[in-house]
Amino acid sequence: MKQSFNILKGVWKLLFLFLLILITFSYAMFQGGFVSWFLFYSFLPFGIYAIFLFFYPLNQMEAERSFQKNEFNAGESLKVTIILKRKSAFPLLYLVVEECSSEELVFSMQRIKAKRLLFPGFRKEITWDYQIDDLPRGEHFLRAIRMKTGDSLGLIEKEKQIHLEDKFIVYPVYEELIYRPMENHFDKGMAASKERVQRDTSVAIGIREYQPGDRFSWINWKATAKRNEMMTKEFEQRKSHDVYIMMDCTPDSRFEAVVSFTASIIRAILLKGAQVGFLSVASERVAFPVRSGESQQQQLFYHLAKVRDNSLVPIDRVLEAENFLVQQNVNLMLITAQITKALIDKVGFFATRKGTVTIFLLKNEQELPSPDDLALKAEAKARGLRVVFVHDGNFASVFSEVASR
After folding, report:
1. pTM score over 0.85
2. Helix 255-272 vs helix 294-306: angle between axes, to the nearest 10 degrees?
3. Which residue(s) pair with 209 in the sheet?
4. How far is CA 34 from CA 23, 25, 27, 40, 47, in A?
5. Alpha-carbon gap, residue 345 to 323, rounded angstroms
6. Which of 178, 176, 171, 145 is nearest to 61 (CA)?
7. CATH class of domain segment(s) 182-198+239-404
8. Contact at 8 Å (CB) between 155 and 137?
């Protein structure tokens, strides 16, 4: 319907243009004199150009888009180069070029930079550069390039949209942390261990299937040959340093800080040599098994780049539904921006059965804990839980403060 309307609108403008030429010519013929003919000859070039522009095939124009890389960290800049090519050198008085992007970039403050007025003239190749500063976290798409041109009188306008899709990912920003595993010493409370996590490889208690992150020296070649699949030795592990992280995805203004701290602590844990698992429940439930290695970090960072704070279920109800955590021999960490009595109750039940549980409560940079937060922290401490306040922009002090306590 819209396309048919645009065609009729274009035909009407063309007929109106011929009518204007006819009127000025008739006026010159019947009126005579210098002024009338000057008016006709002055308008004639504009009319003829508009007629040629009406039949100019803007569909023949091609576009190329390029940028240096496809992976960024939040806050970085993206420089995009667009090259427009056309077959003929028909003069174009102006060309409005606009980038069509995904919603996250449309509502970015940098949107004005993705639209430009160009003056091609007779050039067959036109190059346009623009830059988006302070990229927001997420998976973003550049979907198409919209072009619009017309004559100087505004009688004829032509518009073309070239579908050209490119994708790039913006990972959450993270801080370098020195992770210190939390150890429960019962009477003495919790302490921070500075030693790098190591498995006890002196005693092999069985075999299992190979998992990404397993060392080459752990492979049991005899069992691998018998089963015709990679098998590794299962070693005795006297104390688990594995960590399972739950991230709260309920709507909150501090959600970006929650994601950033989650990325920071995941990276720190994996660099320490421990294994990490992850669970988030936003619009859908996403869980990652406890693993280590670069591939685990890459998968978790990719998820953190796309996750949104659109969960309809509070984290205490999420924890209640995840019964599998009770069977996991891991240290549980909850990262949230909201702490409630219900959450303390659910986490307290888990702590009585499994041991070490830490709740990281995110605050803005200069935000002070409320009286309710302090009261819930005291209640959590009485139940053997640890609540740590984390301020945005000061992640590095979290484990140094733990170590000094």
Report:
1. no
2. 180
3. 231
4. 16, 13, 12, 10, 20
5. 15
6. 145
7. alpha beta
8. no
Exposed/middle/buried for 293, CB within 10 Å: 0-12, 13-18, 19+?
middle
Which pair of tokens denotes residue 166?
């490119």
- Residues ≥6 apart with Cβ < 8 Å to 173: 73, 74, 75, 137, 260, 263
- Token pair belonging to 92: 């174009």
What residues does 121 pair with on adjacent strands? 92
d(Cα 283, Cα 250) in Å, to the nearest integer? 10
Q: What is the residue whose two structure tokens read 């427009």?
A: 84
Q: How many CB atoms lie within 10 A of CB 388?
A: 17
Between the CA atoms of 106, 109, 114 and 119, what dihedral angle is there, to the nearest 10 degrees? 140
> CA-CA distance, 142 to 100, in Å (whole number)?
6
Give the span between the Cα atoms of 401 and 132, in whole angstroms.
38
Q: Measure the CA–CA gap between 208 and 223, rounded to whole angstroms.
A: 10
In a 3-state reduction of DSSP, which class is residue 228? coil
Distance separating alpha carbons of residues 86 and 57, to the nearest angstrom: 10
58-171, superfamily in CATH? Answer: C2 domain (2.60.40.150)
Residue 325 one-letter amino acid: L
Nearest to 347 by CA among 369, 316, 309: 316
Amino acid at 16: F
- The structure tokens listed for 384 are 């053997």
Residue located via tokens 């429940």: 281
Question: Which residues, other chains included, contact 187 with Cβ-Cβ below 8 Å and sequence gap of 6+?
Answer: none
| Predicted confidence pLDDT, tens digits, the chain (405 residues) | 666 666 676 677 778 778 888 888 787 778 777 888 888 888 888 888 888 888 888 888 899 999 988 999 998 988 999 999 998 889 999 999 988 887 777 666 555 567 889 999 999 999 999 888 888 999 999 999 999 999 888 888 888 999 999 999 999 999 988 887 655 433 334 444 444 454 545 556 677 777 766 677 778 888 888 888 888 876 654 445 788 999 999 999 999 999 999 999 999 999 888 889 999 999 899 999 888 889 999 999 999 999 999 998 898 888 888 776 666 667 889 999 999 999 898 888 776 666 678 899 999 988 898 999 999 999 988 888 889 999 998 888 887 654 444
168-190 b/e (C-beta count within 10 Å ≥ 16 → b): bebbbebbebebbbbbeeeeeeb
